[in-house]
Amino acid sequence: MPKVRVLNLGSQEFEGIENQSIMDVLYRHGYELDSACGGHGQCTSCKVIVLEGMENLYPPEFEEAETIEEKGLEENERLACQAKLNGKGDVVIYLP
């Protein structure tokens, strides 16, 4: 099972499953992220910085890609509500 490790939460690891968003993984383990748009990929309140394992996330879908472009996010920044594990490995993130 792929894991999401959060560096600024004491490097805690949270197990996830393929096609599960980072936000869902964290929520399932009792950690809630802000989401002004309700998890629809239209804001950046759930933005995370991917430090390792970007290749272990599916590429951004239309809504997230549009928001990334409009808001000027960096290459290593994703929206936790939209960034989904592809099941191929672990992801290390930082919560800004």
Arithmetic mean pLDDT: 96
Integer count of domains: 1
Might you state the CATH topology name? Ubiquitin-like (UB roll)
**Could you describe the largest sheet, including whether it forms a barrel?**
5 strands, mixed
Which structural category fits the helices and strands? alpha+beta
Overall outline: globular
Q: With helices defined by DSSP (H or I, 4 residues minimum), what is the helix count?
A: 2
Q: Which architecture name does CATH use? A: Roll
CATH superfamily: Beta-grasp domain
Find the count of extended strands (DSSP E, 2+ residues): 5
Strands side by side in the biggest sheet = 2-1-5-3-4
Give the SSE order as H and E letters: EEHEHEE
Radius of gyration: 12 Å
Distance between the termini: 25 Å
Percent helix: 10-25%
CATH class category: Alpha Beta
Strand content: 15-25%
Low-pLDDT stretches are: none
GO biological process, one term: P450-containing electron transport chain
Family: Belongs to the adrenodoxin/putidaredoxin family.
Organism: Hydrogenivirga caldilitoris
Keywords: 2Fe-2S, Iron, Iron-sulfur, Metal-binding
